[in-house]
Request: fold
Amino acid sequence: MSAGLDLYDRRVLLHTFVNDEMAKVADGLRAELEAQFPEAPQSVIDEAIAEGRRLIYQESQALHARVDRTIDGAVKRLEGK
Reply:
């Protein structure tokens, strides 16, 4: 039973890592936009970041689903199912 829990824990860690890295991308985008366009209205930058975060979230959800399918498939093959 602990092997399943260990696999679950690793899956959670992987998802957490992906989420953290995606957040760093969005934060980096904000810093880059503010540096390149210091006179831009904050609302324009906020809108761009919101759209970027929405797209990042969609992509990360798709990645999470692929990771889960891959792990589940590997477990089934290893269990002989």
User: Anything to note?
Assistant: The radius of gyration is 18 Å. DSSP finds two helices and no strands in the chain. The chain has a mean pLDDT of 85. Helices lie at 2-36, 42-79.
